[in-house]
Design brief:
This protein has about 425 residues and is an alpha/beta fold. The chain is built from 13 helices and 19 strands. The longest helix has 17 residues. The protein binds ligand PMT.
Length: about 425
């Protein structure tokens, strides 16, 4: 269950000098925030508390301010002198935001942008990575709306810290109880230690589907949501890499928040090809996760095609193969990673693509596996190289992205 974060051996003090915004909400676990603050400060971090009105019912701002040596922020204006507390400044100041404990109510508001208190506005303005430690009873935690909200937050690149796992598990096994303070702090340390691992590297990632126009109202497309590609972009950026995320038409709910991710929106395979060919020469690696249409209509009708009684024949021509083209221009020191989405003869087909497209490794996912592939929040992958393979269990796409980026990092140092 543990994905190697909590129990990583961390050398050096990763929290020294780090600025942490600690969000506290109305849960009985709020008393544990004091232990979190004490440990963060002991490790050299600076802590600014932002507390919700309900949070103050469980722990007093005086205690928190004594521990952090800073006034606690709760309202938009200071009651004493009317000073305006800027959530935007806090968003720029912080190296990380940790919300512990995070109640179901706050998690719901964060997922839906309900900015009715200082903590939520701070979260929405946050430029730094955000860590969320849920705290509630099991029924509330297990409710589909809570689970959906947590998955939404995770898809935005936020890190969910669950009891016993360190991060959001693929199955509902956590009990809703907040993770212990020392493990929460260990998650942050682990994050900052990995955060540096891709610093200075540039990664091109493709995500989502492509749309191939038939006429002004119709297209040939596929079911890719972009979730897998966005998870990869977040993971690389979290490790300090600069990411060029070239994505096809995905839902407006698919947003990137990380400042190291630069998003390039395209529609067709041809547009994706052009963006990738111009970006790849200056990249260290590329991960091609997009589901690219192999064919496009030979001509695009200028007017909406009208219904007649006859069969409609649309002639298709092959699109450029982006992966194969990048494989041809790949230079020494560059890494190229591909995906294979298969329905049959999975490994044979993936091995053929690995070779043909000059990938360093290929990530196989099969539509035969429940919970894998298009649109799901989970995926089940096998990583294949020319001389070996590693199978992984079904996991959340954010966790799958960690496995893929770990493999990329191992490959890049060879
Ligand atoms: O977006 P999600 O809903 O999260 O779903 C994720 C996913 C299922 C789309 C993803 O995990 C995945 O499998 N992506 C690759 C899908 C695919 O098109 O596979 P393929 O076997 O057809 O292509 C092989 C490789 O060549 C892929 O890396 C693809 O990006 C690339 N390719 C394919 C065709 C083409 N013209 N140009 C390409 O670069």
């Amino acid at each position: 269950m543990v994905e190697g974060w909590l129990f990583l051996c961390i050398e050096g003090n990763m929290l020294q000098g780090k600025k942490i915004v600690l969000g506290i909400t109305g849960s009985i676990a709020a008393y544990k925030s004091c232990l979190i603050i004490r440990q963060l400060i002991k490790k050299g971090a600076e802590v600014q508390v932002v507390i919700t009105p309900a949070g103050k019912e469980f722990i007093t701002p005086i205690t928190l301010s004594a521990l952090t040596s800073k006034p606690v922020i709760s309202e938009f204006f200071s009651q004493r002198d009317g000073t305006w507390h800027s959530h935007v400044d806090l968003g720029l100041w912080a190296d990380a935001m940790l919300i512990a404990p995070a109640t179901a109510s706050t998690i719901g508001k964060m997922a839906h942008g309900v900015a009715d208190n200082m903590l939520i506005t701070t979260y929405l303005s946050m430029k730094a990575p955000v860590f969320i430690a849920p705290a509630m009873d099991l029924d509330m935690y297990a409710h589909p709306s809570t689970q959906q909200n947590l998955q939404t937050l995770q898809s935005y690149g936020n890190h969910i810290i669950e009891p016993g796992t360190g991060f959001l598990a693929s199955k509902l096994e956590g009990k809703g109880r907040m993770e212990e303070p020392e493990n929460i702090v260990a998650c942050l340390e682990s994050f900052f230690s990995q955060h540096e691992s891709m610093k200075g590297k540039k990664v091109l990632i493709t995500a989502g589907p492509t749309y191939e126009k038939i006429d002004p109202v119709r297209f040939i497309g596929n079911y890719s949501s972009g979730k897998m590609g966005f998870a990869l972009a977040n993971e690389c950026a979290n490790r300090g890499a600069e990411v060029e995320l070239v994505c096809g038409p995905v839902s407006t709910s698919m947003q990137v928040k990380h400042p190291l991710i630069h998003r390039v929106d395209v529609e067709s395979a041809k547009e994706m090809y052009e963006a990738c060919m111009s970006l790849y020469p200056s990249m260290d690696s590329a991960i091609l996760c997009a589901a690219v249409a192999d064919y496009a209509p030979e001509t695009v009708a200028e007017q909406k095609v009208k219904r007649t009684g006859d069969d409609l024949v649309i002639r298709l021509k092959p699109n450029p193969d982006i992966a194969a083209s990048l494989g041809q221009i790949k230079r020494d020191g560059q890494t190229l990673v591909g995906f294979a989405l298969e329905t049959n003869d999975e490994e044979t087909n993936a091995q053929a693509k690995l070779k043909k497209k000059n990938f360093d490794f290929i990530v196989l996912n099969s539509l035969k596996d429940e919970g894998a592939g298009f649109r799901t929040d989970t995926n089940k992958i096998t990583i294949l190289t020319a001389d070996g393979k590693q199978e992984y269990p079904l996991k959340m796409k954010a966790e799958v992205a960690k496995d893929i980026v770990d493999a990329l990092e191992r490959m890049s140092v060879k």
